[in-house]
## 1
Amino acid sequence: MPNTWTLKDKVFIKYIGSEEIQAAVRTLATRINQEMQDKVPVFIVILNGAFIFASDLLKKIKIDCEIAFVKLSSYSGTESTGSLKQVLGLDISLKDRTVIIIEDIVDTGFTLDSFLQQVWEMGPAEIKIAACLLKPDAFKMKFPIDYLCFSIPNEFVVGYGLDYDGLGRNSSDIYQLHIQ
Ligand code: IMP
């Protein structure tokens, strides 16, 4: 892919190349394979953004595991916050299971926080989080990101599953918004 990418009204610059991403994903998979070798975890992939990261990561997971997919949609008509998320598609039992949530990017952490509360209500033995990207300066929550590829500055990024207004998911590199 080229070094700059114009999506609608915005210009993005290549930020993390695919080789660097693949190396980080390999390292993460090795850790998970080691730390989970006596368990049969359930991976929960949060759609849409995590689809490429999850695909790359899960191909490298060599232990027995199950894989589920969820989509989080915003409730309409909540009171003040408007940030509650409804879980669509989580139809397997998580009782006493080790759950590993796969997320593309953790920004404020609000999305994961509300999802985590709902997963805990399903009675898992433990929950771990695997994320490709974290913006530490934007993160407002306390929960740990157990498996992380990259910490990045608080700038908007696209590619590797992440979109800008629906575009940009189809890149194996990650691009950062160019501030002019
Ligand atoms: P949070 O609830 O603030 O942590 O936001 C998480 C969600 O916002 C992610 O799953 C993404 O869908 C989206 N998001 C946050 N930052 C970015 C970004 O830089 N590029 C694209 N999407 C983002």
Note: Residues 76-82 have pLDDT under 50 and may be disordered.
## 2
Amino acid sequence: MIKKYSFGRPMDTDAVVQSLPPESEPLPYFTLTRTGQGVSLSLALSPDEVLFGLGESVRGINKRGFRYRSWNSDVFNHTESTESLYASHNFLVFFSPERLLGLFLDDPGPVTWDLGYTRSDTAVITSEFGDLDIYLLEEDSLPALARAFRRLTGRSYLPPRWAFGYIQSRWGYASEQEVRAVVREHRARHIPLDAVCLDIDYMVDFKNFTWKPDAFPDLKAFSRDMKAEHIRLVPIIDAGIRTEEGYAPYDSGKAGGYFCRKEDGSDFTAAVWPGMCAFPDFLRDDARAWFGDLYRPLLDAGIEGFWNDMNEPALFYTDGTVSKAFRRAEELQKGSVDYEAMWFLKDAFNSIANNMDDYRSIYHFPDGKPVRHDRVHNLYGAFMTRASAEGFRRYDPDRRFLLFSRSSFIGAHRNGGVWQGDNFSWWSHLKMALQMLPNLNLCGFLYTGCDLGGFGCNVTEDLLERFLQLGVFTPLMRNHSALHTRDQEIYRFSTWEIMRDTVSVRYALLPFLYSEFMKAALMDGMYFRPLAFDYPEDPRAVRTEDQLMLGECCMIAPVLEQNASGRYVYLPEDMLMIRFRSAADYDLVPLGRGDHRIDLKLNEFPLFVKKNHPVLLCAGGESSALLDDRRLTAVCRMDRDVAYDLYRDDGISPSPDLEKSLSRVSISADAASGSAVPGVAISEVLL
Ligand code: MIG
């Protein structure tokens, strides 16, 4: 059951697809306080209450015990104490033996989530501007609640099937030759690969929708050659448009009046990578239509996937913030040089980027009337994603395109995926990536993953290998790293063979993982879930922070620590462990409910599977297009006849038919008798 309560003057954020009449009764359960224009909701938490949600945010799967703030931010340097990341996903679930309640704040402005921070027994959620719709969801189980929320906000984005292949990316690839060399190194060593991302260096002066004529002389031919090798190119697009007369996207944007304005009506400009930029007013339908069409030359060149960046929007500086900092420096120079003056000096320069005064000086015109940016800040990335997705649909309504964004808001999950932002090559960020996944799924973002190996800092061989072992299971499996960091392609490392074997497991599992993903997406389910969703009455499972349910029947438990020779895993029920070394090399170990210490050498990682649920493996291959998903090996711990409906489709059709895409795989009980591992069947399946 979903109920809506309106406060102030809510605007259409595109988050919700079901229109409900607002209730006339006051909001139940919460104590409401008005603070200036804001609205605060507070709720007493019982000691055993856990909180799920908030999608992209730091810390645990259970969000209790910290304060988060919805304010989309470019935070290269994020840690455990960072309150705001790149996205705002204002959905939270309260779960205890006494309560199951979903709370969605459809609020495009800043929201603070004090979840047992000020007082450990109280949640206080504050909408700073107070113009919002609040939705309360009540269902009788966690999965039902998640499904109800998805119905409210719409079906998750479907990427093309090739987007489940391994993707290599790096900030710095500057020419066709360089990209060809990356592909060659992968193919020569039989490291599977489906796509290479092009970062900002492919553009002329970092200008969107351009590509360097010398470095990429014939993008169409290049893209065609790559596709012949089953490789897709995935270029980046940033939010800002350089203010340069004669640069077509700027000229057409200016002529159409599609850019965000300042109070005096002139275009708001700020510097980002290309230098001074204007910012498309994605909240306007006409500006979105214009921007979406700017992708055409790239689409015409055969490009089928993009990543949208810098769309919080990130602002390096404006003329205003720079001159203010200089003025402050001059003032300070007049006084004595002491430590205090030095702090002020530092602060003055640190506030040049992503400055609140700048965000307050931007205006959008969603329907002709001005709306100040800070009131709708968290929508910007989501509406950029929408502009792109709408453009792709106009370009070719019969195809799925790959699209993932850095910034997002609930609603954007219908139009694209997200990557988890600029992580570091840290073990703690490997754990953070894992913990973010189920909450992103709960908020609708199924197609997601982190920068494998870590974006900032220098990775080590073992860390990359452990990142890849998580990446085997994340829908977006992309190795990405920052300029000036250590080379991070698999083939750069002495242990490249074990990394290749790890990626080969992804390809062996790809038809199965794709099936699990598509079923979750098409049935408004979750691909990754907290264990609580499957074992709500098991307090151990409810509080498990380093294992995830995957699809209908699997559980993952990656190694998250350096120099570990294994880890403890909690099994809420009897399962089969598949300990992988490669696509063809794995152990099958039936384990009972309870705690287990699992030995896992650096090249080993486990997948746990519930009883009587098969996992399907194909022979593997070097590209998703080359996998044979009709000839599979079913592995199953079983004590009765079992069946699995494998989802298969053409991988690009935007409106697949779930029923028609299922092929039934049946295994009879006797398949497990007389097998090498008692009770575990290994059967060949032909479809
Ligand atoms: O200011 O395009 O998160 O993935 O490599 C940095 C360069 C801009 C941030 C993205 C990152 C990308 C980088 N971008």
Note: Residues 171, 199-200, 236, 309-310, 406, 422, 455, 480 surround MIG (CB under 6 Å).
## 3
Amino acid sequence: MKRAVFPGSFDPLTLGHCDIIDRSINLFDEIIVAIGINSSKKSMFSLKERKKFISTHYINESKIKVMEYEGLTVDFCKKVNADFILRGLRNPADFEFEKAIAQTNHKLTEIDTVFFLTTAKNSYISSSIVREVIVNNGDYTKLVPACVRKDYF
Ligand code: ADP
């Protein structure tokens, strides 16, 4: 079984994340969207809310699972028997950052990272921009899937 882990904070799920998941889904038998728990990072949405956004959006997609993890992503991959890490690239800064992490992960475990370039129309979207728009009462609805607004706003 070809299983990939798509790790991230997903605070909250955005159309940018969905872009990567939707376009890579045919490559894998299963994608585990894995919410990394980082106790030193304060999130806007609780773990429960973040999980619910993802599971609600992909309720009819049996290949998508949602899990949480602590510690190294590669250790989580081993635990769930995933051979691939999935990541999205928006810009050169993402590339530089992701390159070192992917090379380290491969050195540690031989797990490969598969990158998808975002489609141009979603390349500016990030969870942090969405949070900024929400905090300032802006119209965030064009940046996130419907479930993010329906349940919580
Ligand atoms: P992290 O804190 O690990 O970056 P995020 O939830 O912000 O967590 O992102 C998870 C993954 O989704 C990363 O690979 C990131 O590059 C990707 N991603 C986020 N927004 C977009 C976007 N607009 N287009 C493509 N990939 C994206």
Note: The chain has a mean pLDDT of 94.
## 4
Amino acid sequence: MVMTAREVDPRVQAFLGGGPKRLLIGGDFVEAASGKTFATHDPATGDRLAEVAEGDAADIDRAVQAARRAFDGGPWPAMTAAERSRLIWRLADLIEERSEVFAQLETLDNGKPLTVARRDDVGGTVEYFRYYAGWPTKIEGATVPVSVADTFAYTLRQPVGVCGQIVPWNYPLMMAAWKVAPALAAGCTVVLKPAEQTPLSAILLGELCLEAGIPPGVVNVVTGYGETAGAALAAHPHVDKVAFTGSSEVGRLILRAASQSNLKKVSLELGGKSPNIVFADADMDAAREGAAAGIFYNMGQDCTAGSRVFVEHGIYDDVAQFIADQAAKLRVGPGFDEATEIGPLVSQEQLDRVLGYIELGPGEGARILSGGGRAEGAELQKGFFVKPTVLANARNDMRVAQEEIFGPVVSVIPFRDVEDVVRQGNDIAYGLGAGIWTKNLAKAHRVASALRAGTVWVNTYGATDAALPFGGFKESGHGREMGFEAIHLYTEVKSVWVNLAES
Ligand code: ADP
């Protein structure tokens, strides 16, 4: 392993140092059938962090078979709900014990500021598992008064089966948790495929599942590329359900693979281009800060990033300038530096993509108020650092306003009134998140109802909670994660008819 001179926890060093990381299949850590590995890199420096097994279709098949055995005949589905609950809680405790290890792995692999990885990614993951640890004992069916004489009818809610779970690189551990936790609570078994850019925390999560006592084969982790391992998982005929978070483009491929194989259930959490709306009657300090934080959090690599800030006429120049000033003040640097607010983007590919949009904006008539290219400074040239960028005088029909950039780039767009902003806000293929800043309560509720988005934040932006459903309208996805909605995703309802008539 190559490391730069930074304070890396010895447990992280040990995790990274012991030879190529392996796949977790059926409770064993194994090499890929092909013997191939790939490297994962630190986006702040370009340094290689570790070699990781490159799983492909053959490994996915082995993992699905292991998950199938664990589901069809293993101890997991036969366990009492209370036992499953205790094991999920124990997993949460183990993640909490290793918080610092997870946080450092996330920062090394993804680039995000360590302070954020600790608080949000790892802290959020622990809470998420704890929330779902409470669910196994509460998954109920119903008795239903059917209108047929001498009949007793009831429903059972049963686990959907073997679940393929394909997650992205922007919150590697948390996205895995969003999928694994409800699947376990429902009694399913899992094949998890982390993103090739950020495989490390999922491997450690797999280790802790075993340590917690979750039976072998219940959670399998196959690292590898999307076009090979991911595609094989989506197409596998013995997978009952696939859950995916990532780009809308890959979401379409997953749906196609499901429809061309066994019509497995599919849930999708896809892209966004969320409107964050500042009305002139808002608490202006909170609104302007919320508009800036809504786009620059996690370097804008967030599907709910408030990447279209709509500002009411009259306050447009003031708000746009404030966001630009905030952008200029944000401290860009390596995530390991605790003063860093903006880390690197995850990869060269993302850097090229984001810089392409930054170039496109002025060509379409937008004006760069702040940022506008790679971050300066010799230390930052090795990594994928970009300056937070504000595009003013933007229009909703520009490509920079319609396409998901997935970086710290915001289009600031003027609007006239409620009707105008609802029309513009909804004039987009996506429907994941939206923000509204106003002191007028009636207006806030009217606009919240009119916006076609899965989550609307009023006088706040970006919060999520394990208990509250999350997902998208339109091309932002299918289904809802979090809360009981995720239990729905991972269970099938069975209706049982019993004839009570005397023969
Ligand atoms: P991004 O473009 O932001 O990297 P993707 O949607 O490509 O996001 O990736 C999200 C996840 O989907 C990753 O785990 C990736 O490996 C996986 N993936 C990519 N292509 C495919 C595919 N064709 N089939 C299944 N999974 C895929």
Note: The chain has two domains: 21-270+477-493, 275-465.
